[in-house]
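Worked example

This section walks through a single chain of length 120. The input is the sequence exactly as stored; nothing has been trimmed or padded.
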Amino acid sequence: MIVLIVEPNPDLGRLWKRHMERQGAEVYLVAGQDAAFDHLRTHAVDMIVLDLVLEQGSALAISDYASYRRPEAQVIFVTNTTFFSDGSIFLHSPNACAFLQSATPPEDLTAMVMHYSRAG
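Given that input, the structure is written out below as tokens.
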């Protein structure tokens, strides 16, 4: 399983990455839209863990690009805000499979990544 994490907080991103790698995933970590586009342009991914609030670019633009460039990839959105807390993210992003708080324990996020990557 190949995972792309798009997370502007490097400490949080590395924490998630280590947990997923321990479960056997191949994990790439980038901080923003341009790096995510570059990665998706040249690498297949099964799952994208995408922070909804990025310092560089738009999470919805990344999700949209992924649905075109890597239609097999599903997206787990994470956030520390109340944006889309009504579940409307699923209306805006057809490749969204889950929506979690950034404070979700890394082992729970990893379990969700593993679950959805097998379900797809």
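What to look for: Residues 106-119 form the longest helix (14 residues).
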